[in-house]
Amino acid sequence: MLNVVVLVSGGGTNLQAIIDAVDSGEITNTKIAGVISNNKNAYALERAEKHGIPNQCISPKDYESREIFNQEFMKAVDVMQPDLIVLAGFLVVIPAEMIAKYRNRMINIHPSLIPAFCGTGFYGLKVHEKALERGVKVVGATVHFVDEGTDTGPIILQKAVEVEQGDTPEVLQRRVMEQAEWRILPRAIDLIANGKVKVEGHRVTIES
Questions:
Q1: Could you tell me which residues are annotated as the binding site for (6R)-10-formyltetrahydrofolate?
Q2: Would the pTM of this model clear 0.90, i.e. be above it?
Q3: Which residue ranges does UniProt annotate as crossing the membrane (predicted)?
Q4: Burial status of residue 24 (CB atoms within 10 A of its CB: 0-12, 13-18, 19 or more)
Q5: Domains and CATH numbers, the chain
Q6: Of 25, 43, 110, 206, which one's alpha carbon is 20 to 30 angstroms from that of 188?
Q7: 51 is catalytic
Q8: Contact 141, 114 (CB under 8 A)
Q9: Exactly one of 51, 110, 128, 202 is catalytic; which is it?
Q10: DSSP strand E in 38-179: where?
Q11: CA nearest neighbour of 32 among 51, 50, 57, 13
């Protein structure tokens, strides 16, 4: 049974997609061990509460220094004994020590086809604003392992979504969520839970 801890900063739509996929059996061999947010007002915490999932807020604002926050944050994660950590819209820099400890056991969902529209400053609506500004015809989402860079870890899954005439950043964001993010994030978790994902260097192989 794969013990999963989900880290989230906002509404938790990707968290909900994971919860629903576990409940429906789309994600197998998996238990959501806990949810941590840096934002005490994050609706994601309510979503977790409604489903009886342990949840808590650990915010850098509540600590004297980032170093102390990092220590307490790592302690809270370690207590849940995760086999996999899922970043589902988590807007806090992950400590390097934690990345090293959970190498190839921490994944992130990003709302673009990496390496397009990713890296520092590309998050949330900003990704879709830039995609529309550039006039691309296809966007999408990527699930990747987390490394020391920003959106630079080995890619597990990607799914393309077409841009439509008259799209606004908000409309495009929603379509990317519905058609890509909420599909490939649960799929990636299920593949990992069933031992079908192998990492060699910067490449990921998925067993059929």
A1: 66, 108
A2: yes
A3: none
A4: exposed
A5: 1-101 (3.40.50.170), 109-140+157-207 (3.40.50.170)
A6: 43
A7: no
A8: no
A9: 110
A10: 55-57, 84-87, 106-110, 138-145, 155-162
A11: 51
